[in-house]
Amino acid sequence: MSDKAATAAIPNNLEAFWMPFTANRQFKKAPRMFVGAKDMHYTTADGRQVLDGTAGLWCCNAGHGRPRIVEAVQRQVAEMDYAPAFQMGHPRAFELAARLAALLPSPLDHVFFTGSGSESVDTALKIALAYQRAIGQGSRTRLIGRERGYHGVGFGGISVGGIVNNRKHFGTMLGGVDHIRHTHDPARNAFTRGEPEHGAEFADDLIKVIQLHDPSTIAAVIVEPVAGSTGVLIPPKGYLKRLREICDQHGILLIFDEVITGFGRLGTGFATDYFGVVPDLITTAKGITSGVIPMGAVFCSSTIYETFMTGPEHMIELFHGYTYSAHPVACAAALGTLDTYEEEGLLTRAAELASYWEDAVHSLKDCPKVIDVRNLGLIGAIELESIPGEPTKRAFSAFLKAYDDGLLIRTTGDIIALSPPLIISKAQIDELFGKLRTVLQSNI
Asked: What local confidence, expressed as pLDDT, does residue 12 receive?
């Protein structure tokens, strides 16, 4: 796009759009507009190239404008734009479900399609509650989340989630929800490379919650294997295995929210592979279509699925679903994405780059105001000392400076989070951290 055309793309009226998770007044005074994207870069309205350090919003794992995905979407929208998922089907939904199920360890053999990560979380919570009732455990209605957890923005997700600002404005939310502690322990684990050595015992918080409420009241526990949106909190060694053991001992379902960690982010297909812990349900979205078309999915075990497949065959087994479940264009995008992942080895590429990435992330530990650095796979976080009385301002200033310098980063609180497309090269990793070092040394 020419500079003239790009500049012309800026709308004259910004007021009507109430932007999500955005400082609207600040943005509309000095808008930051993207008008194009290809591979590792965005193009701004003034014609600059911005290196994507966040895979869009943790989602564009295959990069931008990838031919296989673009062509699949174009073909599908011309062939059939929409088909209902209630009592009807279309071939690509079944093809996609089979290909996805093949990526997961047994017994995670069934897929329920949604339109987003938030919908995936609410779906998984509802399946867990309905399953417990179906097996005669109807008293198990309690759901357990974790402090600082992020599980989307539906009422189910913010109820089991644990990010204060996502919860405090919206009333009492779901009843019967409790939380265990997060695993962040900077006193013992600051500047750890990879999985922290200390903190597996935090999983035993679940035992305390079970003792408080009695296991017969608890349906499921939901955690992010790596807590992403709160600022990249890496689980201590053995923590997730301990959660699995406790859930097994007490008949509680374990749900992994892999909306961020799924589809290659850690150098394996999913975090369940990386940590060697198999949950009962997995929520996904984002990387399933590399962000091209909104879509999500919930993987569930054969045991859960088969429990519902009883009674008269003409009866609906689960009264749940969405207008856009298994949307044909989204399915086409997902199939094109899987083709791209497979042909380019992207689901394991992060493992090849992990050591180089780790060194690059930790090279910033000497920068001013850096109080912690964390990494796993192709995820990184740089935590900054907050400005007294002005929390989040230092990281937001870094975000603005990085954008001006041609780099897109993500901030949450005073933490810079990084999760580039899986196609990133070593030279681009050097560029990313070179730019970020300049930002952090700029007296923000």
From this structure: 82
User: Which amino acid is residue 182, in one-letter code?
Assistant: H
Question: Average pLDDT, whole number, for the chain?
Answer: 97
- CA of 398: how far to CAs of 152, 167, 381, in Å? 25, 26, 13
Q: How many residues does the chain have?
A: 444
pLDDT at residue 222, rounded to an integer:
99
DSSP-derived pairing of the beta strands 281-284 and 296-300: antiparallel
Q: Quote the percentage of the chain above a pLDDT of 90.
A: 97
Q: Are 301 and 128 in contact (CB under 8 A)?
A: no
What is the rounded distance in angstroms from the CA atom of residue 327 to the CA atom of residue 113? Answer: 9
Collapsed DSSP state (helix, strand, coil) of residue 85: coil
Of the chain, the end-to-end C-alpha distance in Å amounts to 33
- List 383's β-bridge partners, or say none: 372, 415
CB 140 within 8 A of CB 216: yes
| C-beta neighbour count of 79 within 10 angstroms | 12
In Å, how far from its chain's centre is CA 374? 17
Q: What is the mean pLDDT of residues 45-58?
A: 98
CA atoms of 202 and 188, how far apart (whole Å)? 13
d(CA 432, CA 244): 37
CA pair distance 429, 361, nearest whole angstrom: 9
| pLDDT given at position 3 | 52
What is the rounded average pLDDT of the residues 337-345? 98
Quick one: CA torsion of 334, 335, 338, 344, rounded to 10 degrees?
Answer: -120
CA 13/CA 185 separation, integer angstroms? 46
Distances (CA, A) of 100 to 7, 85, 271, 274, 369: 41, 18, 15, 17, 43
How far apart, in whole angstroms, are the C-alpha atoms of residue 394 and residue 369? 9
β-pair partners for 435: none
Is pLDDT of 8 > 80?
no
- What does the DSSP assignment read for 234-269? PPPTTHHHHHHHHHHHHT-EEEEE-TTTTTTTTSSS
CB atoms under 10 Å from CB of 167, counted, come to: 13
Asked if omega into 107 is within 30° of 0 (cis), the reply is yes
CA dihedral 44, 50, 55, 58 (to 10 degrees): -70
The per-residue pLDDT for 43 is 98
In this prediction, residue 4 has a pLDDT band, given cuts at 50, 70 and 90, of low
Query: What does the pLDDT read at residue 2?
Result: 53
> Are the beta carbons of 209 and 180 closer than 8 angstroms?
yes
